[in-house]
Amino acid sequence: MSPQDSKRYRNVKVDYLARVEGEGALYLRIDKDKVEEVELRIFEPPRFFEAFLQGRRWTEAPDITARICGICPIAYQSSAISAMESIAGVTVTEPIRALRRLMYCGEWIESHILHMAMLHAPDFLGYEDAIQMAQHHPDVVKNALRLKKLGNDIMTFLGGREIHPINMRVGGFYSVPEKRDLEHFIPELEWGLEATRELAHLLAGFDYPDFERDYEYVAMRHPEEYPMWQGRIVSNRGLDIDWPEFFDHIEERHMPQSTALHSVIKERGAYMVGPIARYNLNHDKLSSDARALAKEAGLGASCANPFQSILVRGIETFYAIEEALRLITNYEKPDHAYIEAEPKAGTGYGCSEAPRGICFHRYSIDDDGIITGARIAPPTAQNQATMEEDLVDLVPLFANNTDEELTWKCEQAVRNYDPCISCSVHFLKLHVDRC
Amino acid sequence: MHTPRKPKLAVWKFASCDGCQLSLLDCEDELLAVANTVSIAYFPEATRAVVDGPYDISLVEGSISTGEDAERIQMIRDESNLLITIGACATSGGIQGLRNFANVDQYISTVYAHPEYIHTLRNVSPISQHVFVDYEVRGCPINKYHLVEVLAAHLAGRRPNIPSYSVCVECKRRGTSCVMVAHGTPCMGPVTQAGCGAICPAYNRGCYGCYGPSEEPNTQALSAWWTKLGVEDADIARSYRSYNALSGVFRREGSRYAKKAAAGATNEERPQ
Fold first, then answer.
1. Structural domain count of chain A
2. Pairing mode, strands B8-13 and B39-42
3. Which residue range forms the structural domain that includes residue A193?
4. For the domain that residue A121 is a member of, what is the CATH number?
5. Which of A67, A165, A222, B110 is 20 to 30 A (C-alpha) from A75?
6. Which chain B residue is nearest to residue A168, measuring alpha carbons?
7. Does the distance separating the beta carbons of A67 and B140 come in below 8 Å?
8. Domain span at B15
């Protein structure tokens, strides 16, 4: 780069993005107030899950794919189980369906609170981390830790442990709980509702950058409920598909100037998955109390400001706690913990709403139940193109800020998506020419 | 009055799922106490603040799978007084270690459209293959209380109290009846290190070995028992080749049964 160039361009460079899960870096080259180049670099080494799944037993997929991500193992387990059950032609009983949804509520509560209170809120309040924040807002951090523990406790009780739980299987669960044991959660969940309401009010008071974009939102949609692990895949621009059609519409591009397989909708390009997409496409499926809380927090029926994802996570957490209460109240212990499922040659698809957005799986197995092909589209890979586009539009708004302020703002914009870079199946290393 | 300096803690990540370092944030009841006792000097998953080394304690998650990472771990060792590996990836290579039994070029072309963009080592290796490791915390994922125990023991200048016996001991202590004896469910508990609390048998399933081999495990006897229960050779091989596929005894037994399974398949194909 020539000396003139260095005067002309501003570089925003973050060598190691903090408060995200996994290893990523950010690089922007800015000419006055225009972004010339933007790269969200992922240097998480590839781990080749889709390759070593081949030759494994179909029943192993839920436990193996959980290891893609320690933050959202339930999402991977659910999608893998759905795919295998669709091949075997198994439909689970209502109590099993409810217990899976309850597991999912636990994961949403844990993951959303972790992100809201410990990873994202410090940006809005000007702290480097939640521990610093705890010195001035001790009750906020303590309540958040207690809420997070509630989510983890639900997963641990139903799944044996919170990270890589061991109890979910193709056809159901290895072991199902007694109703009276689940009812122990009721008082803490009731406390959690109020604590989340308070948290949402606090988040509503944050100073949100005035930033909106015209996104294509993609999420699941179920006729009766806010989506977790069942429903069609829809968008606000006419996408309305069943799982087997996913790769007819979504393309994963492996580009030399990209650090990941960017997912795009073939006809239209980048799209957004995650809390805002779910909320905008399923606002009518939230409970009336959750909708009322959203209104109190200043959210309309849809939201186009990615910085407000933290607020939407708050509403979803409130909903997940309400839903957990409802599921526990209505639970009847099933006679059988699982339905026996026999393998047969075929291809199956699974999708579920990880806290960060849809997590899509496709598997082929043979008659003996040996996996012959696997393909997985994790949510963060699907959001990556949108994250980069956000940065291009965001920088001009903060062009007058100091380098440090601008850098922090860009980091915050990436954290809007709660990116989980460890979902590394599709991520790869890239060499970048740094200015 | 002289206040002792807080020990500086750093958390490093290599190829992994992030779950083991998340365990530290999952210590909801202990987190603020830990933060009062040690200074969190480098922990990108939790903070954007960075304090330069050297560090008193480094926690290392993940396995080595790229040339850059092989260099980075040397730098981390140089900067760390105590280096503790956390989790199956760091202590034994983890699930991604399965590539060592396959052709990595084939793996790359299975997953990626442009293999030429991918730079990775042929083999995955645990941290101890590269640098001296002071202490290993096992498990996929680790038990978060083991992590707290290791940190507390270090601060108190004593040995950490973490079991090296098998999962069977934990089942007995928990009062879980043996799933293998009572239900004929294949279980890796007899050869797997305790520490998880024997959760799988307590939930009616066999242990799948995510804590790796226990002290002096008799894998051959266990495999013979599994064969009696009707488990095929290929499935015995798969069970050893999972989250700790590269640990010594599991690796040997996995390979022994993979060979047996391959020989069996050839025999079947041979015309009578």
1. 1
2. parallel
3. 49-423
4. 1.10.645.10
5. B110
6. B203
7. yes
8. 8-156
